[in-house]
Amino acid sequence: MSSDSSLPIAMGFVGLGAMGKPMATNLAKALPAGAHLYVHDIVAAAVNELHALFPTIVVKCGSAREVAQNAEVVLTMLPEGAHVKSVYLNPSTGIIAALDQTSTKLLIDSSTIDTATNLHIRSQLATHSPGTSFYDAPVSGGVLGAERATVAFFVGASPSDPTLPRLTSLLQPMGSKTIPCGGASLGLAAKLSNNYLSGLITIATSEAMDMGMRAGIRADVLASVFKAGTAQNTICDVFNPVPGVCAAAPSSHGYVGGFRVQLMRKDIGLAVAMARHVGARNVLGAAGLGVYAAASEAEDCRDRDSRVVYRYLGGKEDW
């Protein structure tokens, strides 16, 4: 990936987990000569590893506040709403502690959290620092997409937002598509709707693969049938839950890496809550949430990629 001279010379990234670290890596690769990427994570090893890859670009910081003090644009990628709230609003170590009435920073949160927390953070930042812009921009594409810089960003902005071209330019090194979803927190609403559907498709794919294989069809043949028919979906084609069908999928590596099953449980729960809040009727939500909750507690599934629900459902792995 070549450098992009349109990117700022001082950017920040907070949250170097399974998604954040490869995203920050791709961003560092794209920064122009002389630029710096200020980073922070509570896991020092993640920060050290990124710094070792880009010793002249990555600057290690002791807090989110320090990142925001040095960077004009800050991106965050964190597991849950409580983490996001702390990173942005902690009066001592949070981003807000680096802002004042004259600040004009651009803050982009790519975490998948509830819309209420996002709107609360937005309100607090607007009061404390009116010139600072804050956008929700969650992503879809999984760890493979983060590594390959092919994730899609769902941005909480209207197509006519004057900042959208800048946002698109900033996010381009990390993803293949930026979709404006209409306004504040609507990127999150889109992401929760997406993960609700993706999570349920994973369960349905696991069940369909299992029953077809039990009937005597080879897993790879069955996957090719789904790909050619009306059942075609990305989970089956790229992240197939049956080990050995997709060589790069987490399932083919002991379900290590990928999107942890506990995080899918969280996202399905947030989606079901959002549906309830807006008055949508979800007949599959409770059942899907139950599957992910149970798999999250199962010893042979916990902390593994969410497609491990195939294992939880009793699917054959050594076909």
TrEMBL record:
Q: Does the keyword NAD apply?
A: yes
User: What is the active site of this protein?
Assistant: 191
* Keyword Lipoprotein belongs to the record: no
In the record, what terms sit under GO molecular function? 3-hydroxyisobutyrate dehydrogenase activity; NAD binding; NADP binding
Q: Name one Pfam family in it.
A: NAD_binding_11
The EC code for this enzyme is: 1.1.1.31
Q: Locate the 3-hydroxyisobutyrate dehydrogenase-like NAD-binding domain: which residues?
A: 187-312
GO terms (BP aspect): L-valine catabolic process
Q: What is one GO cellular-component annotation here?
A: mitochondrion
Going by the UniProt record, its keywords in alphabetical order are: Branched-chain amino acid catabolism, NAD, Oxidoreductase
Signal sequence, start to end: none
Ranges for domain 6-phosphogluconate dehydrogenase NADP-binding come to 11-181
The UniProt catalytic activity note for this protein reads: 3-hydroxy-2-methylpropanoate + NAD(+) = 2-methyl-3-oxopropanoate + NADH + H(+)
Name its pathway.
Amino-acid degradation; L-valine degradation
Which superkingdom is the protein from?
Answer: Eukaryota
Q: Which family is this protein grouped under?
A: Belongs to the HIBADH-related family. 3-hydroxyisobutyrate dehydrogenase subfamily.
Q: Specify the protein name.
A: 3-hydroxyisobutyrate dehydrogenase
Organism annotation: Lasiosphaeria ovina
